[in-house]
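[Q] Does anyone have a clean C-alpha cell version of this?
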Amino acid sequence: MSKQIGSNFQLTHHAIQRMQQRGISMLQIEAVLTYGRTIQEGRVVRQMIGRNEVADYRREGINLSAMQGVHLVLADDGSVITAFRSQSLRRYRAPRRRPVAWR
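[A] Here you go.
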C-alpha cells in the first residue's frame, strides 16, 4: 500500500514511518529524486546524493549540502520503499580496473 504525494511520486507506509524516525523531509526526498545518483540493483533502484553530487550542483548554484547522505530505495513501479542516511558510498563505487599487462 502506498500513498500518492503530489503528482511526482508515491511513498509506502514504511517509507513514511522511516522518514519520520530519521528526520528526512519531503523536500529532501524530492531533491534526491531530482538530483540524486541512480543505481539499479536487481528489482529495486537506489537513489542517493553523495559528495560528488553536492559538488557538481554547487557549481550550478544549487545547494544540496543538507541532502548529502540521504538514500532512497525505489520499487520497480517508482514508489519510495524506504529512506535512510548514510555517508558511506563505497559499495556504489565503480570497481577499479586493473591495467592490462601487455606482453
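[Q] Thanks! Anything notable?
[A] The chain has one domain: 2-85.
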